[in-house]
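Q: What residues go here?
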């Protein structure tokens, strides 16, 4: 056995140092590199494209400080229409593999610049997958373009389209160049993180026809100004699943932690041919005489394949002073979206930009006073823990038209702006529940309305100590960290849990009415009260989609108490909405109005169907009646229930978690070398010692396969659930997002 263990460890070392796990790394330096070098750190390549030609799956290209331009950079001749479609600076034409991504990133501690004046900065060509791009500044030529030049370009585009000469082509991508994009090929498993993208005439970051894309922690500003193509800052368009097996409702498309501001369009929309699924029937839409300025969204999802069932996640984003909506989820009939913990402020700037453009001959554009969050022609929309501040009450804070499935709106702050309303002009009940309307969120330093761009450096959207957003969020719809990487206070190990202190905890009415109530509580000050029951099943329910994993077993806990004067039984039941079947998690349990009674039972998720759990009250034969539920927790089977004795619903609303100290002023480096793990070997749980913000980590096996493990994070440590791993040796890679440094640790799963 000792010899076998030694052979196993020796084999691991051979794999590690041969580059099979992570591939060979290469280095690029614009100032002292040569493309005839070997690409090592001492003898780097000069161009990024040369390094791409050498890299293989699992390898990383480290790009050192410098400015990297496209061919013919600086030779654009606008007056003579020369060099108007210069090539991309970087073309990625390689794929990684599952668990072995190709990474293009900055050299630790440095910020290389990709500067373009043509088609764009970085393009992922054809159908390349498993790629990470991080740590770059990408700058377009917008500062060298003015209104007259862009309008002349629009006129030229119309001329070419109407010209019957087939040899005349529009090749002025100088006015529509994108920062980072996927071209027209279908991609999957792409991560774009920690980049600064600005002054791009077209979109800053865009992916078409792709799936499993994550855009996170980027700063995007001054994009889309000069294109007539109705672009937006960060875009997912025409999303499509790669296979039927991968077309479930899981979260696969993510926009997280991005700061997006001053992105708007100044040029009226023009298009030679509308997409088949545009959804617009106006015959003048996008024609030569069309005067409307469109899009300029902060974050935008549009025209997903009608059969695409995935869920889009928007979380921890800051969207300020953009042209139209802060976030728009549109025309994705079978898809759903979760909007959680975003801060949306003073968008809808097109109304102001029009005033600036009128003097230049552009007609004023009115009637699209939007500015907050919008979801239109989609399946489900969940809007929780967001702050939305609009310019005035003529703008929309929230629009949810044509949602064919469910609308879940809770624990938001809406200041100014219209909300979906009933025939009396009052916000619908699903909006007013647990949300604060016309309440100032009290930021540290938010900008005034300005006619043009804001200086983001003069703003601070963190919360003041008396902000109503503090401790008012729903932890069931909250990420572990905020936009700055600051840990949000979580509730121990619960997959889903709530004590109903500040919210419904994700629960909705099922044929009844539900409200948080101070009349009774198991712990804390509130519980969830179920009233107005007319049938046995009238109750409260919690949708289990995206909470359960196939083949895994779980334990449900919930406490029940009847309203005064009632008696009867209660039961936990799961309904399969796909098959219209019911599973009793517990038997009928006798409950009373005198004390709280615990209901607990186990459940194994065995079929990939849509499910929800509900807690039934007394039957109509027993007199029905009102009842309360409290301290609900869903945990891995065999785990104890969540202890709510000292904790409540204490996450904050918005992108920033209140800390008492402005995190934006903290600049000290992270001491990544002080991080350690324990126990080692481990059986079910691996603990990572206390570390500062902006540190992430990944787990790999010896073949380079990456594992997404459940975790619980607090201020003392992070616990990884490694119970799903087979016995053997694994690698923990730790990454410091501020300094770019990494650390690799090994552990044994027994």
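A:
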């Amino acid at each position: 056995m000792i010899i076998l263990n030694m052979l196993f460890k020796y084999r691991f070392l051979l794999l590690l140092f041969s580059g099979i796990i992570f591939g060979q790394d290469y280095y690029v330096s614009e100032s002292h590199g040569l493309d005839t070098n070997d690409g090592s750190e001492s003898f780097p390549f000069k161009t990024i494209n040369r390094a791409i030609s050498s890299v293989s799956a699992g390898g990383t290209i480290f790009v050192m400080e410098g400015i990297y331009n496209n061919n013919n950079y600086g030779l654009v001749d606008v007056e003579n229409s020369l060099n108007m479609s210069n090539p991309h600076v970087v073309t990625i034409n390689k794929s990684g593999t599952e668990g072995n991504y190709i990474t293009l990133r900055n050299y630790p501690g440095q910020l290389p610049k990709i500067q373009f004046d043509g088609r764009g900065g970085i393009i992922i060509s054809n159908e390349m997958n498993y790629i990470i791009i991080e740590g770059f500044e990408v700058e377009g030529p917008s500062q060298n373009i003015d209104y007259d030049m862009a309008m002349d370009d629009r006129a030229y585009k119309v001329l070419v389209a109407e010209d019957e000469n087939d040899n005349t082509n529009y090749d002025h991508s100088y006015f529509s160049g994108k920062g980072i994009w996927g071209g027209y090929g279908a991609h999957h498993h792409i991560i774009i993180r920690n980049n600064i993208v600005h002054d791009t005439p077209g979109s800053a970051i865009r992916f078409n026809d792709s799936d499993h894309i994550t855009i996170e922690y980027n700063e995007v500003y001054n994009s889309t100004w000069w294109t007539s193509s109705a672009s937006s800052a960060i875009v997912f368009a025409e999303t499509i699943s790669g296979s039927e097996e991968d077309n479930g409702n899981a979260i696969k498309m993510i926009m997280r932690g991005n700061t997006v501001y001053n992105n708007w369009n100044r040029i009226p929309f023009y298009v030679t041919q509308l997409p088949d699924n545009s959804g617009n029937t106006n015959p003048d839409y996008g024609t030569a005489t069309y005067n409307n300025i469109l899009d300029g969204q902060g974050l935008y999802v549009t025209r997903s394949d009608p059969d695409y069932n995935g869920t889009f996640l928007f979380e921890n984003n800051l969207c300020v002073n953009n042209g139209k909506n802060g976030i728009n989820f549109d025309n994705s009939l079978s898809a759903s979206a979760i909007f959680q913990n975003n801060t949306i402020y003073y968008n809808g700037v097109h109304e102001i930009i029009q005033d600036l453009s009128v003097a230049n001959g552009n007609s004023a554009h009115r009637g699209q006073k939007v500015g907050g969050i919008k979801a239109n022609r989609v399946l489900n929309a969940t809007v929780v823990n967001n702050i939305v501040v609009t310019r005035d009450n003529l703008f929309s804070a929230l629009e949810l038209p044509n949602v064919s499935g469910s609308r879940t709106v809770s624990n938001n702050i809406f200041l100014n702006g219209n909300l979906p309303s009933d025939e009396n002009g009052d916000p619908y009940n699903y909006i007013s529940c647990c949300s604060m309307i016309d309440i100032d969120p009290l930021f540290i330093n938010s900008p005034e309305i300005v006619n043009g761009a804001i200086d983001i450096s003069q703003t601070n959207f963190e919360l003041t100590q008396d902000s109503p957003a503090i401790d008012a969020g729903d932890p069931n719809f909250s990420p572990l960290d905020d936009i700055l990487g600051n840990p949000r206070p979580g509730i121990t190990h619960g997959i889903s849990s709530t004590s109903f202190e500040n919210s419904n905890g994700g629960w909705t009415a099922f044929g009844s009415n539900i409200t948080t109530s101070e009349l009774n509580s198991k712990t804390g000050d509130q519980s969830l009260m179920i009233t107005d029951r007319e049938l046995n099943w009238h109750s409260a329910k919690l949708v289990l989609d995206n909470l359960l994993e196939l083949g895994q077993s779980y334990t449900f806990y919930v406490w029940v108490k009847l309203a005064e004067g009632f008696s009867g039984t209660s039961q936990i039941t799961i309904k399969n909405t796909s098959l219209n079947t019911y599973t009793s998690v517990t038997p009928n349990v006798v409950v009373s109005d005198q004390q709280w009674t615990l209901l607990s039972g186990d459940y194994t998720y065995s079929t990939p169907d849509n499910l929800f759990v509900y807690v039934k009250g007394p039957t109509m034969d027993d007199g029905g009646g009102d009842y309360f539920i409290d301290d609900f927790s869903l945990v891995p089977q065999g785990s104890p229930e969540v202890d709510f004795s000292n904790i409540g619903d204490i996450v904050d609303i918005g992108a920033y978690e209140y800390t008492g100290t402005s995190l934006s002023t903290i600049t000290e480096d992270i001491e990544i070398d002080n991080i350690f793990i324990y126990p080692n070997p481990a059986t079910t749980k691996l603990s990572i010692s206390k570390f500062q913000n902006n540190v992430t980590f990944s787990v790999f096996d010896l073949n380079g396969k990456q594992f997404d493990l459940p975790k619980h994070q607090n201020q003392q440590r992070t616990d990884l659930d490694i119970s799903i791993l087979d016995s053997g040796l694994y690698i923990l890679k730790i990454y410091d997002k501020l300094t770019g440094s990494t650390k690799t640790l090994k552990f044994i799963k027994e």
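A: Context that may help when evaluating the design: Residues 1-21, 662-671 have pLDDT under 50 and may be disordered. The first helix runs from residue 2 to 18.
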